[in-house]
Every structure is written in C-alpha cells, then in structure tokens.
UniProtKB/TrEMBL annotation:
It comes from Arenimonas metalli CF5-1. Residues 234-323 form the Beta-ketoacyl-[acyl-carrier-protein] synthase III C-terminal domain. Keywords: Acyltransferase, Cytoplasm, Fatty acid biosynthesis, Fatty acid metabolism, Lipid biosynthesis, Lipid metabolism, Multifunctional enzyme, Transferase. HAMAP family: FabH. Its main location: cytoplasm. This is Beta-ketoacyl-[acyl-carrier-protein] synthase III. It catalyses: malonyl-[ACP] + acetyl-CoA + H(+) = 3-oxobutanoyl-[ACP] + CO2 + CoA. Catalyzes the condensation reaction of fatty acid synthesis by the addition to an acyl acceptor of two carbons from malonyl-ACP. Catalyzes the first condensation reaction which initiates fatty acid synthesis and may therefore play a role in governing the total rate of fatty acid production. Possesses both acetoacetyl-ACP synthase and acetyl transacylase activities. Its substrate specificity determines the biosynthesis of branched-chain and/or straight-chain of fatty acids. The active site is at 113, 250, 280. The keyword NAD does not apply. It is found in: Cytoplasm. The gene is fabH.
C-alpha cells in the first residue's frame, strides 16, 4: 500500500502584531474579556499590500527546505484558503509560479476554517491512489482583510498566517485516515454575505465584505461536531483515546479546544495551543500549530497525532497521522 508521510512543515506569519490592548483603542472591549472568553492575547496582522500568497510562499519555502524537496519535484500544490489574493487564478497557481514549480497541478480548496484539513485529505487521496508522489499542502489566510473593525463580536477573534506541509508517498503510514463533513444548512451562522452572484455593496465599508457570526451558536455546533469526528476517527482506526500522543486542534477558541481535549481524556499538556499568540487564522491555524510543535521538538517521529478543524459552511474534519 502507498501512504503519505509528512516530510517537512513550515510557517509564514506577518511581522505586525496587534494585542488585545491595541484593540481596546478602537472597539469597546477589554483584554480581560477577550482572553477569558477565547484565550486570545494577540494576533498577527498582514501589512498593507501583504497578501495570502506572500504568507503561503513563506510557509511553503520553509516546509520544502525542511523536507529537502525542490520545486521541480512537486507533482501538485493544494492551498486551503477562503481569502485568496484574487478570485482567479487560484492562490495555488500564484504560489506555483513564485516557487518555479510551473507545470504541476495547482488548485485552491475553500472550506473556511477547515481548509487545511480538506486540502490535506485531497492530497492524501491523490497520493494513495498513485496519482501524485510529492504534494505541497498549504493553509493560508488574511482573514483580517474581511473583518468589520467596528464589530467587536468578530474583529477580536481573527488573525493572519499560513502553514504548510510537504507530503511524500511512502510504503509506511503516514496519514492513517482523514474524515470530512459539511452541513450547508447553517450558512447564516457564520458567513461573508457578498460575492460575485449576490453582488457587492459599494455604499458599505470594504464593499460589504465582512465576516458575520452568531458566536454562541457556532460554539455549540463546533463542540458537537468535533466530538463526533474525533470519535469517528478513533473508531475507524480501531484505536483508544489513550493511544493518541498529541491533539492539534483548529485554534478558534481555547474553550472549544478544552472541550475536545476533555472528550479525549487528554491533559492540556498534550494539546498544541497557539490561539493565544495567533488568534483564529482559519485555514492557517492547524498547520501553524503543527509546525510550531515540530520545530520546538514537542512532536517526535513515530508519535500519533490527531488534527481537527471546524469552520464556516459548516465544514469540519480530522486527520489521524503517524508522524
Ligand atoms: N468585548 C466585549 N464584549 C463583547 C465582545 C468583545 N469583543 N464581543 C461580544 N461581547 C459581548 C456581547 O455583545 C454580549 O453582550 P450582551 O450579553 O450584552 O449582548 C456578551 O459579550 C456575550 O456574548 P456571547 O456571544 O454570548 O459570548 P460567548 O461566551 O459565546 O463568546 C465567542 C463569544 C468568543 C465568539 C464564542 O462564542 C466563540 O468563540 N464562538 C465560536 C467561534 C468559532 O469557533 N468559529 C468557528 C471558526 S471561524 C471560521 O470558520 C471563519
């Protein structure tokens, strides 16, 4: 059998940092409120002119260097993003040209905050099917570009960033399984209400491009869906909770992360947490957390990792990985 293994990981974060104290200057909020409700202390914010592809490129180059893979070796590039530089070409195509990997397959996957898990699953399935050997998978976002900075319900939650992995075909696992789900019936709880068909709103700030969220409802759905998908993942592999070494969750809210950890009977010292530093970077969050844990030496080869995410759509999913 053929499996995909993570050969290298990388990160790309904007330099500029916005703290909760900074936010207090322009919306009625407090460091105490944000930290106690979400765990967030600060987030990175793209500079003017800095794009999703800029962050993706940084993460991709770092992952390729760690994997010892050159652009010519890439068979495919999959980018999870809901904030592409352009409507088209895809961010994956823009990235491909920057890397000098012209010729290989390249496309974006839009699954909101589950974008990286979806992209990883697509890449894994191409490798398992024998249709690709070396794939660059990126989760990259500039969510702050579509925030309403006067809406304290949303603007305190998000940040910008990108993470990447290089997957290589191997006879040993690797990615053991991925599990994807969606429920398009809950659109209004978390969405961005404008677009090519609906139109834009020239009279509104940012032409009406903004994240709208009913936070407490999303919270409940997220916890329930994540509980179900982590159960499903263990069951599909005939594993026990105690077999897991690390939980690498989507970094939206520390309380959601803690709920999933509790479901898995995992102490928080076996959970990778970056939400305090990064906020919610949507598709960027899981690969950023993974890269940090790999580079800090926490995650070791041979360990069992559970990745999961939940986002607008709704979309949710998981990946079980023998690192
Ligand atoms: N500062 C101060 N007060 C605030 C702020 C703020 N930044 N934001 C909201 N409040 C107020 C509200 O107005 C409300 O006041 P009211 O009771 O007078 O009306 C009060 O705080 C409580 O609001 P709730 O929404 O009930 O607070 P909750 O405890 O649910 O926390 C939060 C809100 C942090 C948004 C939480 O619900 C959450 O994290 N939800 C999930 C987010 C998520 O996971 N999203 C999925 C991924 S995102 C993606 O896919 C793009």
């Amino acid at each position: 059998a053929v499996y995909s293994r993570i050969a290298g990981t990388g990160s790309g974060l904007p330099e500029k940092i916005l703290t909760n104290k900074d936010l207090e200057q322009f919306v009625e909020t407090s460091d105490e409120w944000i930290a106690s409700r979400t765990g967030i202390r600060q987030r990175h914010v793209a500079a003017e002119g800095e794009t999703t592809c800029d962050l993706a490129e940084r993460a991709a180059r770092a992952a390729m260097e760690a994997a010892g893979v050159t652009a010519a070796e890439l068979d495919m590039i999959v980018v999870g993003t809901t904030t592409p530089d352009l409507i088209f070409p895809s961010t994956a195509c823009l990235l491909q040209h920057r890397l000098g990997a012209n010729g290989c397959a390249a496309f974006d996957v839009n699954a909101a905050c589950s974008g990286f898990i979806y992209a990883l699953s697509v890449a894994d399935n191409f490798i398992r099917a024998g249709n690709a050997k070396t794939v660059l998978v990126v989760g990259a976002e500039t969510l702050t570009r579509m925030l309403d900075w006067s809406d304290r319900n949303t603007c305190v939650l998000f940040g910008d960033g990108a993470g990447a992995v290089v997957l290589k075909a191997d006879t040993e696992a690797g990615i053991l399984s991925t599990h994807l789900h969606a429920d398009g019936g809950k659109k209004e709880l978390l969405y961005n209400p404008v677009g090519v068909s609906v139109g834009f709103k020239p009279e509104e700030k940012n032409a009406g491009v903004r994240v709208l969220m009913t936070g407490n409802e999303v919270f409940k759905h997220a916890v329930k869906a994540l509980d179900a998908v982590v159960d499903e993942t263990l069951e599909a592999n005939g594993l026990q909770k105690s077999d897991l070494d690390w939980l690498i969750p989507h970094q939206a809210n520390l309380r959601i992360i803690e709920a999933t950890a509790k479901r898995l009977d995992m102490p928080m010292d076996r959970v990778i947490v970056t939400v305090h530093k990064h906020g919610n970077t949507s598709s960027g969050s899981v690969p950023l957390a993974l890269d940090e844990a790999v580079r800090s030496g926490k995650i070791q080869r041979g360990q069992l990792l559970l990745l999961e995410a939940f986002g607008g759509g709704f979309t949710w999913g998981s990946a079980l990985i023998r690192y």
